Amino acid sequence: MSTEQVRLRPPTVLVVDDSPTLLLALLDHLSRHGFLVVLAHDANEGMMRATLAEPDLILLDIVMPGLDGFEACRRLKAEAGTRDVPVIFMTGLSDAKQIVSGFAVGGVDYITKPFQVEEVLARINTHIALRRANNELKHAYESLARAQEDLVHQEKLAALGSLVAGIAHELNTPIGNSLMVASTFDAQTGEMRDHFAKGENLRRSELVAYLDNACTTTEILMRNLQRAADMVTNFKQVAVDQTSTQRRTFLLSEVVAGNVLTLMPSIKRTPFEVTHSIPVELMMDSYPGPLGQVIANLVNNAIMHAFEGRSEGKVELVAEYEKSDWIALHVRDNGNGISSANRERIFDPFFTTKMGVGGSGLGLHIVQSIVGDILGGRISVSSEEGCGTCFTLLLPLEAPRH
């Protein structure tokens, strides 16, 4: 099934259980919440339907006549078509050894019977979202691998494997935070549900505290999941930018002005100023797309890092002829400067002083790769703490042909 078809159809959940009552109950509740539900009465039927229905998630009972849930899960994980489908075990047992056994054969979660529908929905939605995020990353990697075959002459694609691994690693933080917060809130909700089930009195302060926590939990989940989505989107955009380079003759002043203009909506939300002074006659035969990406990354890097603790600052883009066939493009700021220790690592992949608050550490590494591998130039940095920073691009007026 194509990726587009998967996006268009509602999520499919396969429920495998020998209890007709439970099957019908889950069919009713899950269907009303927008899921396609496929039912199976035993493990063998469940494995057959898993192959045919291509479910997004499987709810699998552990204790069934004949083949039990553990062995069924083990066989599902051994098949290429079903090994990536998340399996949530349903069990009436709370034995820790049973739970460990479930994880050992490939299960991702478990639900103890009898359970509440809200709990089932929360766990299903979490694991389906995680699977689809992983699939997006997998498809991004496959797209990059195909691009590498078409652009074997461009060394910039040599580090794609490490980029994919780094993005996967970076995604662990927001997704892990989301899972932790969701699990904690799930436990709190369970306690609240128990109070109602037992008919216990609930103080107003307890309800207010629970609602406040619900708002905080939602905010944290939205922020972390949005960050994960943005990282995948940005990574895919980087791949597109790097694999769709087009060469042409252009005026550098126009390219710089156009890229600064696209950045202005975000710059205007800060107290900082961005200016540019480029000789109007400076003509280049190069790659304006990648050059624009370099300019955007350097300006954004200055806005994010250079002026911390300051209420004003300035970023300047200045170009000058270096030789008859080379130019120097300076991107400098009057900010806080960079320490000598950080200056030595500034172009390393995934090095950032803003980890966890928006920085992934890819920006300057990508800039260095583009400048050297596509534009045929060099990039250097000069900086002292308290005296600002200047990135200098030495670029040929006529870039190498790839």
Features:
alpha/beta; Rossmann fold; 402 residues; five-stranded mixed sheet; Heat Shock Protein 90
What does this entry look like structurally?
52% of the residues lie in helices and 18% in strands. It is an alpha/beta fold and 402 residues long. The strands form 3 sheets. The protein has a 5-stranded parallel beta sheet, with helices on both faces. Strands 7-9-10-12-11 form a 5-stranded mixed beta sheet, with helices on one face. Helix 3 (43-53) runs parallel beside helix 4 (69-78). The longest helix is centred in the middle third of the chain and has 40 residues, at 204-243. It is elongated.
Which SSEs are present, and which pair or pack?
Blueprint: H1 3-8, E1 12-16, H2 20-32, E2 36-40, H3 43-53, E3 57-61, H4 69-78, E4 87-91, H5 96-104, E5 109-112, H6 117-150, H7 160-197, H8 204-243, E6 248-251, H9 252-267, E7 272-277, E8 283-286, H10 288-305, E9 313-323, E10 326-333, H11 340-343, H12 363-373, E11 378-383, E12 389-396
Helix pairs in contact: 3-4, 6-7, 6-8, 7-8, 9-10, 10-12
SS strand fraction: 15-25%
CATH class call of the largest domain: Alpha Beta
The CATH architecture name of the largest domain reads: 2-Layer Sandwich
Spatial shape: elongated
Average pLDDT confidence is 83
The strand order across the widest sheet is 2-1-3-4-5
Total count of helical runs of at least 4 residues: 12
- Rg, please? 27 Å
Q: Give a count of the beta strands, DSSP E runs of length 2 or more.
A: 12
Task: Give the SSE order as H and E letters.
Answer: HEHEHEHEHEHHHEHEEHEEHHEE
What structural class do helix, strand and pairing data support?
Answer: alpha/beta
The biggest beta sheet is recorded as: 5 strands, parallel
Total tally of structural domains: 3
As residue ranges, the low-confidence spans are 151-163, 237-242
Q: What is the CATH superfamily classification of the largest domain?
A: Histidine kinase-like ATPase, C-terminal domain
